Amino acid sequence: MLFSLALAALASSAASTILWDGRFNDFSSSTDLNNWSWGNQVGPYQYYIHGPSSVTSYINLSQSYKNPADSGSKQGAKFTLDSTSFWNGQTMRRTELIPQTTAKINQGKVWYHFSIMKSTTNSPSIYREHQINFFESHFTELKSGWISGASGNSDPMLRWYVGGQSKWSVNWEAGVWHNVAYEIDFSANTVAFWHSTGSNPLTLTVSAVSASTSSNGADWHLGVLELPVGGQPDSTEDFYFSGVYIESGSLTTSVAGPGGVVVSSTGGSQTTPAPGTSSTPGTTPVPGTTLSTSTVVTPPVTSAAPAGNLSRFSQCGGTGWTGSGACVSGTKCTYSNDWYSQCL
User: Fold this and answer.
1) Whole domain around residue 338: which residue ranges?
2) 101-113 pLDDT, tens digit each
């Protein structure tokens, strides 16, 4: 019986393929990001969306920056927004990385993995909207802080958005690692949300919902874009990321990642599924199942976007951009550099 279970676990793990690995395991420090340029596209990341200061002002790596349960990662990353984090004269503060890969991360069913945490030190503002780990069309992303246009002026929640609609939220407490996998089916045009905290395995938290899953394979942004709010200071804010990779075949639910060994977030050992344990593709729990501390939101139906199908802040041009469409009403395609224009 045990032999059969071991074989089943091995077969499930083998069915999972890492398409792109962004876990910083081959980095000696964040300054390695400087090796990349448009003329020398090396390493796992494109690094060009940031302020004018040195890379260590915006991104730093350390073993202490990763989820302790993520034994598949040697180190995690701290992304910082400070008073200089303005890219190409924009009014938004931004620190972002983009996968440097030719892998088919925008085809079929794939899972975009990452863990995220904030600290009590340099905690992100609850008075400003933060767009986190987003696609340029914003068909799916995390958000924190006060969402522009919402009632009130503050919001302590971490939210998952699909097509501009909040589908899940949780009170974002400092020191808690949130483990996430976006399940994106580019063929079926759906997105599902897998989530856990600490060392717990991922569970399907929001079943697949329809989405305009458009991507050219080079438009997923790991990091943060913060919208300005009048009267709010540009205080230093830190975001921590761990366990970043994209896989296909089947989902690895272990926070340790493929081949890792789960360690308790408190430092002790814990009984867990076999390393690399994966779920069966397409398996879904009762729709709307959530963790006890989170909320699934069923938003009201809203009217369609005005003329144009590219939302505000979406990419609308630039060398290598293969998308199409026009900016929504009230925005225009604004040149940033030869490689990037954006609806503003």
Assistant:
1) 306-344
2) 999 999 999 999 9
